[in-house]
Amino acid sequence: MRRSNEDRLKGGHKPKPEESAAPMANPMDFITPSEFVELPSKGRYPEGHPLCGKDSIEIRYMTAKDEDILTNRSLLKKGLAIDRLIQNLIIDKSINARHLYVGDRNAIIVFARASAYGKDYKAKIQCPACGEHSRFKFDLGDYEMYDGNDTEGTDIQYKEDGTFTTTLPLSNFVARIRPLMGQDELDLVTKGKAKDITNDIITKQMKYFVVDFNGYDDKKTVDYVCENMVATDSRYLRDCFRIISPDIQLEQNFVCKHCEHEEVMTVPFGTDFFWPDR
After folding, report:
1. Which of 12, 26, 102, 170 has the most other CB atoms within 10 Å of its CB?
2. CB of 45 closer than 8 Å to CB of 162
């Protein structure tokens, strides 16, 4: 509508400044949900670790982009797919997935699998009695948390730096040991790529979880003792390592449909844990 001459003479009304339109939200935008996952370790990390004293960690749900990681041939070949997935799912990026205890990483893996594809996990199991393979359905919601603190009746002593000490029964060496971290697990897998990882697995694992013997922590000494200790000490040390290692315990009763052998089986982890039917 045109203004009148009188309005022109009076200078007219000053036009109101146009309000800038609010940017339209993308109707397809949404926030990926997250949950706090209980840590088997209950945050028993050395002082200075971002999870020290914390009993849970915030993890987001898996997306289609995360599924790409699990099918990435390069990452699968290098044994890095699961590690990359765990790192991506952690909300707090100051936390390095490789600096988490293996048991805490397992808890994250179980949550990721169950929240993405459901709690039923059909795995291919080989019967330890007859050797035949069959499909067995694990319930990922049926688990127990073990905090690595069941040291009653042993001489295992916890140290503030996150390590434990124990005295070997025959040699009387004082061994200082620790739970394995994600980095240790990766090293065991990736360094075994060139040859069968199952070769010397007992001594290989001990070399990672032993910190020192009688205070001697140089690699040459630790490796020598691990390779040459008597079997009695070796078995005792491995039992101590199992006791101090926090983990999520997914053990369920398996009955072989071929020979009816019955045994408690542990859920196998790995990339097939996410793609059991491929």
Report:
1. 102
2. yes
- Token representation of residue 115: 């929240």
Tokens of 193: 């790529």
Predicted local confidence at residue 165, as pLDDT: 98
Cβ–Cβ < 8 Å for 268, 254: no
Alpha-carbon distance 157 to 167, whole Å? 10
CA pair distance 255, 204, nearest whole angstrom: 32
Average pLDDT over residues 189-194: 68
Measured on CA atoms in the order 175, 104, 135, 64, is the torsion positive or negative? negative
Q: What is the pTM of this model?
A: 0.84
Indicate if the pLDDT at residue 236 is higher than 80: yes
Judge whether 225 and 211 are in contact, CB under 8 Å.
no
- Cα 42 to Cα 222: distance, rounded to the nearest angstrom: 29
- Largest separation between any pair of C-alpha atoms in the chain: 112
Distance, in Å, from the CA atom of 267 to the CA atom of 234, rounded to the nearest integer, reads 26
Distance of CA 116 to the CA centre of its chain: 16
